[in-house]
Amino acid sequence: MPSEKRVLIACGTAIATATVVAEKVKEIAKEAGIPVSVTQCKAAEARGRAMVFKPHLIVATTTVPKDLGVPVINGVPFLSGIGIDAVKAQILEVLRKED
User: Fold this and answer.
1) Which of 8, 30, 69, 84 has the most beta carbons within 10 angstroms of its beta carbon?
2) What would the DSSP string read from start to end of 28-77?
3) What is the Cα–Cα distance from 21 to 27, expressed in whole angstroms?
4) How far apart are CA 44 and CA 37, in angstroms?
5) What is the pTM of this model?
6) Calpha distance 97→51 (Å, rounded)
7) pLDDT digits (tens, 9 = 90+) for 50-69
8) Left (φ > 0), alpha (ψ -120 to 50) or beta: where does 14 sit?
């Protein structure tokens, strides 16, 4: 069984859009059989949350720092409906990597 992956979801307020994206990420991981722990934060908090939560992946719907040491994937396709398959593939590629 794959090890649990940690995913940090960042958006402007950590409320509405982050919740939508978090649910999508959980759904994608569940379908792939990958256990995940997902948490949400404001984009302004991303650096501090990344230091504490130590995510394998950050999915952001707004700009976050690029130098957080983990892949950052644009989560806007989950809100717009455009490019969802591509972003799903990117997320799964990262989540399937061994630690």
Assistant:
1) 8
2) HHHHHT--EEEEEEEGGGHHHHHHHH--SEEEESS---S-SSS-EEE-TH
3) 10
4) 21
5) 0.93
6) 20
7) 999 999 999 999 999 889 99
8) left
